[in-house]
TrEMBL record:
Annotated GO MF terms: proton-transporting ATPase activity, rotational mechanism
NCBIfam families noted in UniProt: PRK08476.1
Family: Belongs to the ATPase B chain family.
Protein name listed in UniProt: ATP synthase subunit b
Subcellular location: Endomembrane system
GO biological process annotation, one example: proton motive force-driven ATP synthesis
Keywords of this entry: ATP synthesis, CF(0), Hydrogen ion transport, Ion transport, Membrane, Transmembrane, Transmembrane helix, Transport
Amino acid sequence: MLDIHLPLMLFVLVLFLILLVLLNNMLFQPLIKFMDDRDASIAKDLEAAKNFSGNTDELNAKADEVIGNAKNEAAIIRQKAVEDEKTLAASKVETRQSEIDKEYESFVEKLASEKENLKNELLSQMPLFKESLKAKFSKL
């Protein structure tokens, strides 16, 4: 039935051991080395990501500070511009008001002189009016 051939068994055993050593050297050790390197690379990348996240928090804080400073400076510049424009507008209004006042005074003076001229003219023509009124009353 089954015969056990010792030399054949030894040959298979030796062949199995040689194959195991060859596979270990050519496949298993490089595969294990690759997996270890990959694990180390993943760990290094995770550590770098943690450092970057800590660094981004710091950079975000700096960016927020810079933005806040810029907003404050913009508000100061805007306030200064508004005050300058208010001052300029007030000076223009004051200048125009003084011009209007001068024009009004000259108008009042001109009106007063015209009033006086008209009054003098009417007074000078008063005898003519009296004569014309007397003539009209006499016709009645």
